[in-house]
């Protein structure tokens, strides 16, 4: 009974830490928006707000998939290249044809799933370090994309209007892209928190040895995490084409670091076992808002990457500090119950 009580107390403590991180991001967003609006009243115009959410949608979608990977103590650096490959492949698929949107989405997610499957098999079954695997597939996929494109560009004029409508249209005044991202985020978030198999991802990240002794199929869960990340990257690739219309071979180049930054800034521990898809999405929204603020204030775009890097370092430092404090608190709690 004492062990169960201690474990429940530990979970409550972790939940408090997560809520604190997410609330701090919300507070930072409010302050950032308030200060920028005071400097430029047009920042909070209906179009300005719409653009922020549209720009954040694809990054948040990728952050949701990356969260599933990171909580298992792994990482996926190939997501940016997958987005670029799928965006170009989808553009070629619809070129000169009015394809069914569902078919285009299925094709994009299927390509992403294959890329995720390759990553997952190499990491989970062949025990190759995730950093090495996904860095390798990043360059392989980029190389394939460049070879296939041969400098060709997909133009918005050649993309069916029905697909472009997915990127610019709305329902009840709410753009489709944020709606899609919110639905995916809620589904994945609910699964990770409410289903035993979803909690297993966190168990693997918290303590792989204990998870193995508890009978959790670590290989299966890691493989699943990479496939989900690949599927969402594929979906993001189609949405990229729908959002921007014009696509070249290096679409989403460098976005893998933006995605990792959004996830870590959003409170997902880089060492695994802690974090939520909601925090990751908030991290993506914060980074996107910072980018919009810099544009409004006419600050050099270089500072966007610099600030993202600074936030990443700060988030990792905070994660480490919180991890040490939570560990000490749990040890004291367990010692009291043990006594």
Automatic annotation (TrEMBL):
Regions that span the bilayer: 23-40, 52-71, 102-126, 173-192, 222-242, 254-271, 278-297, 303-322
Cellular compartments per GO CC: plasma membrane
Record localization: Cell membrane
UniProt topology in membrane: Multi-pass membrane protein
Entry keyword set: Cell inner membrane, Cell membrane, Membrane, Transmembrane, Transmembrane helix, Transport
Quaternary structure (record): The complex is composed of two ATP-binding proteins (LsrA), two transmembrane proteins (LsrC and LsrD) and a solute-binding protein (LsrB).
Protein task: Part of the ABC transporter complex LsrABCD involved in autoinducer 2 (AI-2) import. Probably responsible for the translocation of the substrate across the membrane.
Protein name (record): Autoinducer 2 import system permease protein LsrC
Organism: Actinoallomurus iriomotensis
């Amino acid at each position: 009974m004492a062990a169960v009580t201690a474990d429940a107390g530990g979970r409550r403590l972790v939940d408090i830490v997560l809520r604190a991180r997410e609330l701090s991001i919300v507070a930072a967003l409010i302050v950032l928006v308030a200060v920028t609006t005071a400097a430029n009243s047009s920042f909070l115009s209906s179009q300005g707000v719409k653009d922020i959410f549209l720009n954040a949608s694809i990054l948040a979608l990728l952050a949701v998939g990356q969260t599933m990977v990171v909580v298992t103590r792994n990482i996926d650096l190939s997501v940016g290249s997958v987005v670029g490959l799928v965006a170009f492949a989808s553009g070629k698929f619809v070129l000169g044809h009015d394809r069914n949107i569902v078919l285009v989405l299925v094709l994009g997610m299927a390509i992403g799933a294959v890329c995720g499957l390759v990553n997952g098999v190499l990491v989970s079954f062949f025990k190759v370090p995730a950093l090495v695997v996904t860095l390798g597939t990043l360059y392989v996929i980029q190389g394939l994309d460049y070879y296939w494109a041969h400098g060709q560009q997909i133009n918005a004029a050649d993309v069916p209007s029905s697909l472009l409508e997915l990127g610019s249209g709305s329902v009840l005044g709410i753009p489709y892209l944020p709606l899609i991202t919110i639905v995916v985020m809620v589904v994945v978030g609910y699964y990770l928190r409410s289903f035993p198999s979803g909690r297993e991802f966190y168990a693997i990240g918290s303590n792989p040895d204990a998870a193995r002794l508890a009978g959790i199929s670590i290989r299966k869960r890691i493989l699943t995490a990479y496939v989900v990340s690949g599927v969402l990257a594929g979906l993001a690739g189609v949405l990229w084409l729908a959002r921007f219309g014009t696509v070249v071979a290096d679409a989403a180049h460098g976005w893998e670091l933006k995605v990792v930054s959004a996830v870590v800034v959003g409170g997902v521990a880089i060492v695994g076992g802690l974090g939520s898809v909601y925090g990751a999405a908030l991290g993506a929204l914060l980074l996107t808002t910072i980018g919009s603020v810099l544009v409004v204030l006419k600050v050099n775009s270089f500072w966007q990457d610099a600030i993202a890097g600074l936030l990443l370092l700060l988030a990792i430092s905070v994660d480490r500090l919180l991890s040490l404090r939570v560990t000490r608190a749990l040890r004291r709690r367990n010692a009291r119950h043990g006594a």
